[in-house]
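Suppose you are handed only these lines of text.
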Amino acid sequence: MSWGCGLCALLAGGALLVLLLLRWLRADGDLTVLWAEWRGKKPENELRGKVVWVTGASSGIGEELAYQLSKIGALLAISARREDELERVKKKCLQISNLSDKEILVLRLDLTDRSSHEAATNSVLKHFGKIDVLVNNGGRSQRSLFVDTNLDVFSAIMELNYLGTISLTKHVLNHMIERRRGKIVTVSSVMGIMGAPLASGYCASKHALQGFFNSLRTELTDYPEISIINICPGPVQSKIIQNVFTEKLDKSIENFKSGVVSLFFSPPLAAFFTLLTDSLAAGMLGLQFWIRFFSSSSLPWQLMPSSASQLCAQ
Ligand SMILES: NC(=O)c1ccc[n+]([C@@H]2O[C@H](COP(=O)([O-])OP(=O)(O)OC[C@H]3O[C@@H](n4cnc5c(N)ncnc54)[C@H](OP(=O)(O)O)[C@@H]3O)[C@@H](O)[C@H]2O)c1
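From them, the structure of the protein bound to NAP can be written out as follows.
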């Protein structure tokens, strides 16, 4: 091969690498999700007619997910504590989709009321006859320094984000094991992988979920058609800041300035859903980072933890 041909091959290889890198940097998901999408595993092909139960569907990520899923024809069970908000979400789903009234079930659910989870699961099964996908999305974050925070706040965070989630999963998984198929999708967070100031309890609960579901996956090797999928988004605009736990159980967030910082860096909610629905459709194992925003907001916080205390209103 002449020097000229060699140089051309090198340049072509370099250009391909640059293109791949640009594609990855512009993507909402990691390379495994992009690869699955490229092979045709698109949400609209995989999820039409499937029964998807979304918790935390009365606002934010769960609400938007309900809209996206209804548009592609998934049958929905939507849950949270506020039934009026769920009815509002259902109404909009019916307006933007071809689903009929019966194809969207509003089911009130308090994740911390674990004794109600079996009956709730039975209600979804009675209505639809099956559950194809459970999206464990309901949860709350935290904005308070560990030294200032009462221990009962840590207990409440674990009760909701961790125990509530695995309790519901246990009931739904029994059904999936009977059918030998299903997907359990858990909206974890980048905070499930790294640490961050002002969120020690929240990070712990998301780390717990990561550890739990990564272990559960290894226990299900006899059921290759059951997927355990963890989603690890960076910041997403939602009601999460308004709803955070603070130093005390009965204290809300109004004096906290970092809400502005977080919203400034957060992308609009709708932009997040390529990652979520694609991962769900692809049934990918493991983690998906929302890489662009991970670097733009979470990383500086990780590198400058001392700024955290200054962001707390005195
Ligand atoms: N926004 C972000 O930046 C971000 C980043 C990474 C991960 N996440 C995760 O994404 C998930 C959704 O958060 P979001 O951003 O959409 O926040 P959000 O707008 O505050 O929504 C939280 C949802 O959880 C529900 N919820 C809260 N407590 C509950 C309980 N005891 N029982 C049942 N449902 C309960 C809320 O409904 P009710 O109040 O009606 O019960 C609401 O529908 C959370 O797990 C969060 O950790 C969010």
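What can we learn from it? Strands lie at 51-55, 75-80, 104-108, 133-136, 182-187, 226-231. The longest strand covers residues 75-80.
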